[in-house]
């Protein structure tokens, strides 16, 4: 530094500068510090993670309120009469925000544990391969940089500039009351989860998507189960183009394609995807190679961008925009940034997505190939699901020619838990026969997996023996 002219001398120096204090950035900072690096964690707001503020947690809080309404509405199936159902919209939104704020406070408290001088408030942009400048003019020089700037909702042109009735996940959780009616544009995880929850809370919801496939469901029968389920709570309008304009009563949506029509909604939720937050970072100054979408080209085993000293993690890399991936990628990026130039590949978990509809949609592992074995379990008459009056959907398991499980698709009651068991089984290298030898308690949703596991075993003559203690004959003896 000493031979740099004073005007170019950095105000702040460190081994690893992390841009963005969300889940990925927090994990990167911790991992780099654990490796002995001097770190700076830079964020304009330090408001806590997206997950806690406007992502996973508030969306799940809305979903649990919707579940309470749904359970009350279907209680008469069991002979239980809860009386006339009333949903208190302001109370739903108040509880959501109170609980959300608790989660946010926890993520903010983690900033208090940072070593003094580590948290730097400001918006960063590159001025060179490992140099940054903050809005207030402070210059930062690092040995390596981690980009962990997250993502931002995409709002297509027809929905821009129509005022506060057009919502994104940045604004929907701030509503003082539930909307009277809601058009949801986009049937990905965000659109599906929030549309079904709002529908169950009594909001008249129509979900529009320009594609005919919801939630990127990979298998036709899984998609069929999902769309049948959500269509009970809302109106589906798929494969259509939408136009929007302001109307005295709200927002008018005109749609065209296989179906045509128009309607006025009090609010519109735009859930048409999220883009990495890379604008304003001046990636050109960092000299990074960019893909067609302007995202740095990086190695997902090391999180390194090309041959540079820049690493990327979380939604910013547009690879797998999920909480557990942001956390894992952050840790890997931070570790490698601290060790730079000694960069090593880190472990990556197998692909796993879970959309919290009811029933949930879960997909894990690789897509099936030509030699993939498949086994199915039908949940439309599964014992425990039937007892709970929610028997529907199916599980499809995939295995390699030796019977080793490689992936699964689920849309059935309990899929969020069943898919966890299955992803653990896949990651541990278990075969279908191995799982059949494990205990299955009765009567559970897990028992429903046996049909699919046996079908795989039959195809390659693997033993279909079950763990003896779980068979009725032994239990009854
Ligand atoms: C409604 C919704 C529901 C979701 N539900 C789930 C779910 O159930 N399960 C799941 O696994 N995932 C879910 N996700 C996805 C998950 O929330 C994200 O993948 C994850 O939170 C991304 O973390 P991140 O660290 O990449 O980004 P963030 O937490 O957004 O952090 C990015 C940080 O970068 C900062 N920043 C941006 N630009 C700059 C700059 N120039 N300089 C300095 N700082 C900057 C921002 O201020 C921010 O603090 C959901 C997302 C949404 C929107
Ligand atoms: N449970 C979870 O894990 C969870 C929940 C919510 C969000 N997320 C994460 O957030 C990310 C973003 O979610 P998302 O649902 O916004 O995005 P997405 O990209 O997954 O889905 C967007 C949907 O909008 C549709 N679409 C795009 N442009 C459109 C247009 N102009 N008109 C009509 N439809 C249009 C697409 O066909 C697609 O179905 C997801 O990829 C996921 O990783 C995860």
Automatic annotation (TrEMBL):
CC cofactor note: Binds 1 FAD per subunit.
Swiss-Prot/TrEMBL cofactor(s): FAD
Annotated S-S bridges: 51-56
An MF annotation (GO) of this entry: flavin adenine dinucleotide binding
Record key words, sorted: FAD, Flavoprotein, NAD, Nucleotide-binding, Oxidoreductase
Pyridine nucleotide-disulphide oxidoreductase dimerisation domain sequence ranges: 355-451
InterPro entries in UniProt: FAD/NAD-bd_sf, FAD/NAD-binding_dom, FAD/NAD-linked_Rdtase_dimer_sf, Pyr_nuc-diS_OxRdtase, Pyr_nucl-diS_OxRdtase_dimer
Record Pfam families: Pyr_redox_2, Pyr_redox_dim
Binding-site residues, NAD(+): 186-193, 273
Active-site residues, record numbering mapped to chain: 442
Domain FAD/NAD(P)-binding residues, every copy: 15-330
Positions that bind FAD: 60, 149-151, 315
E.C. no: 1.8.1.4
Enzyme class: oxidoreductase
Family: Belongs to the class-I pyridine nucleotide-disulfide oxidoreductase family.
Protein name as it appears in the record: Dihydrolipoyl dehydrogenase
Organism from which the protein derives: Paracoccus gahaiensis
Lineage of the organism: Bacteria, Pseudomonadati, Pseudomonadota, Alphaproteobacteria, Rhodobacterales
């Amino acid at each position: 530094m000493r031979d740099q002219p004073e005007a170019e001398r950095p105000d702040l120096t460190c081994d690893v500068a992390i841009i963005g204090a969300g889940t990925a950035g927090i994990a990167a900072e911790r991992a780099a510090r654990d490796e002995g690096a001097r770190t700076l964690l830079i964020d304009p707001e330090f408001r806590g993670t997206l997950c806690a503020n406007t992502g996973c947690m508030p969306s799940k809080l809305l979903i649990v309120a919707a579940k309470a309404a749904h359970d009350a509405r279907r209680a008469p199936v069991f002979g239980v009469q809860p009386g006339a159902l009333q949903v208190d919209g302001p109370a739903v939104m108040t509880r959501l925000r109170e609980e959300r704020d608790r989660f946010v406070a926890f993520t903010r408290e983690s900033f208090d544990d940072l070593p003094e001088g580590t948290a730097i408030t400001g918006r960063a942009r590159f001025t060179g391969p490992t140099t940054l400048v903050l809005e207030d003019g402070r210059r930062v020089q690092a040995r390596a940089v981690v980009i962990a700037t997250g993502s931002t909702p995409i709002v297509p042109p027809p929905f821009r500039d129509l005022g506060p009735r057009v919502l994104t996940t940045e604004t929907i959780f701030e509503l003082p009351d539930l909307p009277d009616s809601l058009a949801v544009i986009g049937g990905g995880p965000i659109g599906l989860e929030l549309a079904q929850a709002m529908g169950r809370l009594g909001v008249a919801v129509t979900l529009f998507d320009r594609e005919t496939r919801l939630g990127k469901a990979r298998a036709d029968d899984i998609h069929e189960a999902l769309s049948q389920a959500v269509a009970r709570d809302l109106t589906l309008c798929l494969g259509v183009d939408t136009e929007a304009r302001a109307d005295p009563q709200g927002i008018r949506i005109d749609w065209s394609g296989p179906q045509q029509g128009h309607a006025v909604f009090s609010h519109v939720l735009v859930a048409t995807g999220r883009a990495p937050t890379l604008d304003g970072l001046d990636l050109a100054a960092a000299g990074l190679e960019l893909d067609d979408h302007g995202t740095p080209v990086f190695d997902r085993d090391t999180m390194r961008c090309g041959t540079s000293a820049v690493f990327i993690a979380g939604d910013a890399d547009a690879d797998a925009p999920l909480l557990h991936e942001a956390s894992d990628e952050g840790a890997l990026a931070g570790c490698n940034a601290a060790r730079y130039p000694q960069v090593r590949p880190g472990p990556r978990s197998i692909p796993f997505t879970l959309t919290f509809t009811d029933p949930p949609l879960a997909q894990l592992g690789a897509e099936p190939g030509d030699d993939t074995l498949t086994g199915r379990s039908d949940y439309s008459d599964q014992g425990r699901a039937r007892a709970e009056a929610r028997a529907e959907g199916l599980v499809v398991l995939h295995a390699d020619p030796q019977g080793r499980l490689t992936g699964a698709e689920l849309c059935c009651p309990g899929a969020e838990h069943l898919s966890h068991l299955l992803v653990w089984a896949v990651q541990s290298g278990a075969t279908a026969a191995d799982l059949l030898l494990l205990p299955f308690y009765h009567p559970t949703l897990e028992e429903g997996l046996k049909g699919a596991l046996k079908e795989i075993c039959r195809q390659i003559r693997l033993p279909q023996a079950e763990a003896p203690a779980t068979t009725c004959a032994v239990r009854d003896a």
